[in-house]
Amino acid sequence: MAGDYRPADFEARWQQRWADEGTCEVNNDGARPAFYPLSIYPYPRGKSDIEHVCNYTFGDLLVRYRTMNGFAVRSPVGFDSFGLPFENAAIVNAHGADALRLAIVQTKPPAEDVDWNDFHIAGCERFLGRVWRLAASTSEIRNRRSGQLGDADIELDKATHGLIRRVTDDFERWSYNTAIAAYMEFTNYLYRYIQRDDGPHDETLDFGVDTLLLLLAPTAPHMAAELWEIRSGSHIHSQAWPLPDKSKLVEDMVTMIVQVNGKLRDRIEVPAEISEDDALNLALGSEKVQGFLPGKPTRIVVRAPRLVNLVS
Predict the structure, then answer these.
(1) E strand residue ranges, the chain
(2) What is the pLDDT of residues 28-78, one digit of tens each?
(3) Mapping DSSP to helix (H, G, I), strand (E, B) and coil, where does residue 8 land?
(4) Dihedrals φ, ψ of 187, to 5°?
(5) pLDDT at position 161 over 80
């Protein structure tokens, strides 16, 4: 099986390789539509600290996502085309830059204030470790099989296409924290799948893992690059963003996330076609939610059937 997740073994190396290969450079031939991210300009502050990383992580994630979607990203003067002077300060920390990025993104949407009591970098590192162990060792999993797909294989294939749609929708509305939740739920799904008595189907498992890495690439760029090269020998940041097969997105029930002040408080199985009013009523009626909602919410965000966020 693969070794432990050790970001210090590869994060600095990937930063140097991106610099040497000109990964961040943009060709101005006009073949791709331009995308201009407007981020705060860099400022002299001495040694990098957490504020630098917090300021630029969301912008970096956005432009990596736009790059994978075929845009020529042109950042302000002083930035590379990914929009971020990479997180050198975080790399010397035991947790690594990718865990720091995930912890920042997971805490709250970028438009809301961050409660640093919810900043759980160690948990993000453990999650990345789970992805690492799975993706780096799929060829070593016992009972792998090929041939005809069974019911569990078909369900995983549908779940993979559903993940593409869910994360894409989350990115488009800057709801990156719910995208992190989707990564984690799908990773749990993959672990349950490979533990089945009949074993995993080769192509179905590889498609699920590779798709997860592609969707993780903007958020955890160093680990995604390392695992993609291990698995395929190519560069993940030159790959296109995956597109879902719409014929495989028919769902009867989906999991709706309910948040209070941006924090996950409940998950509710709801019909895929549920209305916004019905989704809100279910969220307000949840006993788990009521314990964190002292009165009438002052602001309500409903994205049926996936999300209800109540702000008190």
Answers:
(1) 34-35, 72-73, 253-260, 263-271, 299-303, 307-311
(2) 667 888 888 776 665 555 444 455 566 677 878 888 899 899 888 877 644
(3) helix
(4) -60, -40
(5) yes
Amino acid at 293: L
Handedness of CA 124, 24, 84, 58 (dihedral sign): negative
Output the pLDDT for position 82. 41
Region 299-311: mean pLDDT is 93
3-state helix, strand and coil shares in percent for the chain, rounded to the nearest 5: 50, 10, 40
Q: How far is CA 179 from the centre of its chain?
A: 5
Average pLDDT of the chain to the nearest whole number: 84
Strands 72-73 and 34-35: parallel
Residues whose CB is less than 8 angstroms from the CB of residue 18 and which lie 6 or more positions away in sequence, other chains included: 24, 86, 237
215-243: pLDDT as tens digits:
999 999 999 999 999 999 999 988 999 99
Give the tokens for residue 271: 């019909």
Helix or strand holding residue 167 (H, E): helix 151-172
**Parallel, antiparallel, or unpaired: how do β-strands 263-271 and 253-260 relate?**
antiparallel
48: amino acid identity, one letter: S
Percent of the chain scored above 70 by pLDDT? 82
Separation CA 305–CA 307 (nearest Å): 6
b/e burial code for range 222-258 (CB count within 10 A of at least 16 → b): bbbbbbbeebeeeebbebebbebeeebeeeeebebbb
Distance of CA 233 to the CA centre of its chain: 22
The region that residue 30 occupies, defined by phi over 0 for left and psi between -120 and 50 for alpha, beta otherwise, is left
Helix 202-216, helix 151-172: angle, nearest 10: 10
